[in-house]
Design a protein that fits this description.
alpha+beta; seven-stranded mixed sheet; three-stranded antiparallel sheet
Length: 405
């Protein structure tokens, strides 16, 4: 399949879930703020360079594209998880091991808790599950989604039943007060039924159930409770998923601008002292020195991977900085893994490569199978060399300030 095939699918500029197919066999499922722009991004030349070989193979195999439009990005995220679980698409499971995904679990208790668990930990749980939802590919997006959902349907996560005083979340209106005895088992179970319908992407059915409850309450002159359900219905019909929209729009803007951004990271120190980290930027093959950033490691450590993780996390605390299409680190598999963990925690799907040096600190090879090195080798090496130069310069400057004559 190629970009010329896209016109025949009439993809809307709206949120939803898309799926690549070969005949009736679903190969890959994803979600989007704009179905039209997200699917289009698979065929942009520069983006293709950083696609994994698996996705490149999937595009060659695909003969059709299907989609389901949703009212919000939040609903697209939930529908994506539901469809991945139902269809088990080949390329979703091969792109990332199921054990590394996140799942939402409703515990089998009198007052079920709602918990987020990594797939690899599910087999070791010391409690039974009433329901398991997922997989959710992006941890950061799931965290934002749960914040929205919890405001509509407050639930218990950590507090103890009957602890006599309301937990912190109950004081914020995010827990119905299981801890303080504010809600009966029957009423709490009703919240769980609503949550289950919502997580299963059955919003229409959920709204009908809520409307039925609201009418029954109003008929019984329980107007305060009826008004509460009315507010829930309104919230469901006007979901405010700004955080999820922002995340998707940042990625969308990168595609629309034709700027291909590489960020390279390096750290420098002497036995853990005066440890620093830097970020250098190459855009469309050219150094962009105005975008360079320095980071003084807050806890001097003789641990390059820990220092790298700190630098990346602090960099990602700046949403106003454009996200990169590719991250370059200095080192080997350990540095790649460290960067991938931080990006995964932030819910970002960004390719990572590392430049391995020889004993004379000359580039020996580039690691990372998800990038077409033959196209980007020179730019990757440029970014890496610049990061090393910048880190050493910053480290020497700090070290010099420490000397006294």
């Amino acid at each position: 399949m190629n970009s010329q095939d896209l016109a025949k699918f009439s993809l809307p500029d709206a949120p939803g879930v898309y799926f690549f197919q070969h005949a009736s066999n679903i190969l890959y499922i994803g979600k989007a703020t704009s179905l039209k722009d997200r699917v289009k991004s698979y065929f942009v030349r520069d983006i293709l360079m950083t696609r994994s070989p698996l996705i490149a193979r999937m595009l060659e195999e695909a003969t059709d594209i299907g989609f389901v439009e949703t009212d919000s990005v939040l609903e697209a995220l939930l529908l994506e998880a539901t469809m991945i679980k139902k269809h088990q698409p080949t390329y979703n499971s091969q792109e990332k091991d199921d054990k590394s995904y996140n799942y939402v679990i409703l515990t089998k208790e009198n007052f079920p808790r709602v918990l987020v668990v990594r797939g690899k930990n599910i087999q070791y749980l010391d409690y039974k599950a009433l329901k398991i939802f997922g997989p959710f590919p992006h941890a950061g997006e799931l965290r934002e989604a749960l914040k929205i959902i919890r405001k509509i349907f407050p639930y218990r996560d950590k507090c103890k039943v009957g602890q006599s005083r309301p937990c912190f979340n109950a004081q914020l209106g995010l827990c119905p007060g299981v801890c303080a005895g504010w809600i009966s088992k029957r009423e709490y179970r009703k919240i769980m039924r609503h949550l289950i319908l919502f997580f299963e992407a059955r919003k229409t059915e959920l709204i009908k159930a809520l409307e039925k409850e609201m009418k029954a309450l109003a008929k019984g002159h329980q107007f305060e409770e009826a008004e509460k359900i009315k507010r829930q219905i309104f919230a469901l019909e006007h979901i405010q998923d700004i955080a999820l929209l922002k995340h998707d729009l940042e990625n969308r803007n990168q595609v629309e601008s034709s700027i291909f951004r590489i960020e390279a990271y390096d750290v420098a120190h002497i036995s853990g002292s005066d440890a620093v980290g830097v970020m250098t930027v190459v855009e469309n093959g050219e150094l962009n020195k105005s975008q360079y950033r320095k980071f003084k490691i807050r806890q001097d450590k003789n641990d390059d991977t820990a220092n790298l993780r700190e630098v990346l996390r602090r960099r990602l605390n700046h949403p106003e900085w454009r996200l990169p299409n590719l991250v370059v680190v200095d080192g080997g598999a350990g540095q790649i893994n460290a960067a991938q963990v931080v990006l995964y925690e932030a819910g970002l799907d960004i390719a990572v490569v590392s430049v391995v040096k020889d004993e004379r600190h000359k580039a020996r090879e580039i690691l990372g199978n998800n990038v077409q090195h033959s196209v980007l080798d020179k730019t990757i090496l440029l970014a890496n060399a610049e990061a090393h130069r910048f880190a050493i310069g910053y480290h020497r400057k700090l070290r010099g300030k420490g000397f006294r004559i």
